[in-house]
Specification:
Radius of gyration: 20 Å
Bound molecules: uridine-diphosphate-N-acetylglucosamine
Helix content: 40-55%
Distance between the termini: 12 Å
Number of helices: 17
Oligomer: single chain
Length: about 350
């Protein structure tokens, strides 16, 4: 029978929508590609806005699992996802990155004997108890095809004994951004809205449990913001808002006159404010790279990064240390724009051709 293979993409969180956006047009041309949304991110600003601005097709199914403890969330996903996968009978399941949705997708497919392609495989922080590290390790060891964004990632997999199906394909986030540069650069309406000037402010984001779920860490973050020589634009993740309230830290953040808080931005708006920022401060993995792709220096509010290559290109690990942040901001070096597309094909083309030859 000559028909195109059925491939399911399991997604649930913001960075997954971004990677999916780079892959979807090509996949739709050569396969019956269906998107299954776990519902891990469900707020309009965290999900709907991304689907709309990235012109992603509507998911075939939304499991609407919502928030909860890791066990609750992953458990609900396993139960619902298994039914969906049995019903839809895909030839391959694609999982993205390192979230609980990645973990659930990989477990369901592995137990049903369906081959898995892991997008952004091989990333390691070497922090064993970090939830993302657990998710990515499990997904990697259950997958047949490992799509690595960097050579370091491919090396990590080999060191863990994975021998087959390692494909160094380059970075899908780079591809999407590279295709969108004109659109990202054009607009200055957000700068006007927040009364900011190009290269005259810092963009900050934090969402990781290690930063937000610990009161002392949030107090340190407030100190960092307070001592910033430039205004700070701070789109706040709902988890961070909740923790600031829970720890009664509103008074630590609110009186800072140069702190401009706002709801999370959709993709193109976030890239726009990252492009015009003097520097980006973040604990996000994706935004570290995206800022550097745009030529904006990054201060990573963690002690380590999975994207070790970025340390040579304008990414500084500053933890939550206000003194380090101040010194780094005083000596910002220029960033050499980085291009994480291996010579030859674009990442999405490499991924799609590897999937098709695997399923042949
Ligand atoms: C998740 C991923 C992380 C990824 C990030 C991208 C895991 C373990 N973590 O982290 O790897 O970098 O997505 O943003 O999967 N919430 C809402 N509305 C939403 C989504 C979340 O209010 O639409 C709140 C809830 O209180 C929830 C909390 O945020 O409990 C955390 O959400 P969750 O999806 O568990 O983790 P993220 O921090 O978003």
């Amino acid at each position: 029978m000559n028909r195109s293979p059925k491939i399911l993409s399991i997604v649930g969180a913001r960075p997954q929508f971004i990677k999916l956006a780079a892959l979807t047009p090509g996949l739709a041309r050569v396969s019956q590609h269906e998107i299954i949304h776990t519902g891990q991110h469900y707020d309009e600003a965290m999900s709907g806005a991304f689907f709309r601005s990235l012109k992603l097709p509507k998911p075939k199914v939304n499991l609407e699992v919502g928030s909860g403890s890791h066990g609750e969330m992953t458990g609900r996903m396993l139960v619902e996802l298994e039914k969906v996968v049995i019903r839809r009978k895909p030839e391959m399941l694609l999982v993205y990155g390192d979230t609980n949705s990645t973990l659930a997708g990989a477990l369901v497919a592995a137990k049903l004997g369906i081959p898995i392609g892991h997008i952004e495989a091989g990333m390691r922080s070497f922090v064993r108890d970090m939830p993302e590290e657990i998710n990515r390790k499990v997904a990697d060891h259950l997958s047949s095809l490992h799509f690595c964004a960097s050579k370091t990632a491919a090396g990590n997999l080999k060191r863990e004994g994975i021998k087959e199906g390692i494909i160094y394909c380059g970075d899908l986030m780079f591809e999407l951004l590279d295709n969108s540069r004109k659109r990202i650069a054009k607009d200055q309406s957000l700068l006007k809205k927040y009364k900011l000037t190009s290269k005259g402010y810092i963009l900050a984001t934090v969402h990781r449990a290690a930063t937000t779920d610990d009161r002392a860490s949030l107090v340190k973050l407030a100190k960092i913001f307070e001592s910033s020589p430039l205004p700070i634009l701070f789109p706040i993740h709902p988890r961070t808002v909740a923790r600031i309230r829970q720890f009664r830290l509103q008074r630590a953040f609110m009186p800072i006159p140069h702190l401009k808080t706002t709801d999370p931005f959709e993709y193109f708006d976030l890239m726009n404010v990252a492009l015009h920022a003097k520097a980006v401060m973040t604990d996000s993995g994706g935004l570290q790279k995206e800022a550097l792709f745009l030529g904006t220096p990054v201060l990573t509010l963690r002690e380590e990064t999975e994207w070790v290559e970025t340390l040579k290109q304008g990414n500084r690990l500053v933890g939550l240390d206000a003194t380090k942040v101040k010194k780094t901001l005083a000596n910002l070096s220029k960033v050499q724009k980085i291009n994480w597309t291996p010579a030859g094909k674009r990442p999405s083309e490499r991924i799609i051709s590897a999937i098709l030859s695997f399923l042949k």
